[in-house]
Amino acid sequence: MNTPLQPWPYPRWIAHRGAGKLAPENTLAAFQLGHAHGWRMFECDVKLSADGLPFLLHDATLERTSNGQGTAGQLPWAELARLDAGSWLAPVYAGEPIPTLVTIARFCLDHGSLLNIEIKPTPGTERQTGEVVAQAAARLWQGASVPPLLSSFQPESLSGAQAAAPALPRALLLDSLWEGWLDTARRLNCVAVVCKYTLWDAALVASARAAGLRCLCYTVNDTVAAQDLLALGLDGLITDRVDYFDPSQADAVVVNASNGRRVERNA
Ligand code: G3P
Ligand code: MG
Cα(96)–Cα(18) distance, rounded to whole angstroms? Predict the structure, then answer.
């Protein structure tokens, strides 16, 4: 028997890492820019400092998106907080700090925005990262009408999140359909799967739906691909193209009238 789908409180369109590639990824400046473009749900990557504080960063190492060096998770927050996570993209963002999850939670709650927290553990800290991030999220969003969606490529992180904050919704991220993915999503009591967008077809949607799972994709930046994914009935599309797709149009791929008109940082 099919598992019924639960109500889904999240919008169809989700801005990847705050504002895709328009602003330094996973910074408050990116969230501000994404919001200025009309986006009301964001994805970000969260890991732990050496002293256990959740903060935003995609890579395990600091070099690509900051002026720091080495493995981010081996540094205490006091050192990470001093880094410049903006200059690598553009001089206008010089001095933009790495944000804590607390900072981003406050921004989202203050601006009526929803969040998909991707738990992105430093290798070797999978379960602990899931536990600590879920605990922090449960505390930060206590009493909020819509909780953050926790996702991860790492089942061990989702298992930690499930143990620490079972009421927060979880999603399994998939960059391939590895053996046992559906059983794993069921075992972790996930509400959704978030697949690399090229994996989706009608059969995969049917399998996920039959298991009561919502269907999301990352990272779709192409108009035709986005149209095909909407036609398949996907519940959520994560994209970098925050200046291109119109997030207010839930059921169609509409290119924003402001396409090409950059919303300035402090506009
Ligand atoms: O959470 C969706 C997407 O962000 C997963 O891939 O590498 O961009 O974090 P990545
Ligand atoms: Mg991510």
Answer: 14
Q: Interior CA angle at 113 toward 261 and 176, to 5°? A: 85
- pLDDT tens digits, residue range 11-67? 999 999 999 999 999 999 999 999 999 999 999 999 999 999 999 999 999 999 999
List ligand 1's pocket residues with C-beta within 6 A: 16, 43, 45, 58, 118, 151, 173, 194, 218-219, 238
Domain boundaries, the chain: 13-239
Report which bound ligand comes closest to the CA of 216.
1
Name which residue sits closest to atom 5 of ligand 1, judged by CA.
Answer: 218
- pTM tops 0.85, yes or no: yes
Ligand nearest to the CA of 14: 1
User: Which two three-digit tokens encode residue 160?
Assistant: 């930690």
For ligand 2, the distance from its centroid to the CA atom of residue 1, given in whole angstroms, is 33
Q: Which residues are catalytically annotated?
A: 16, 58
Residue whose tokens read 């990352």: 218
Domain 13-239 fold: TIM Barrel (3.20.20)
Q: What sign results for the dihedral spanned by CA atoms 200, 9, 219, 212?
A: negative
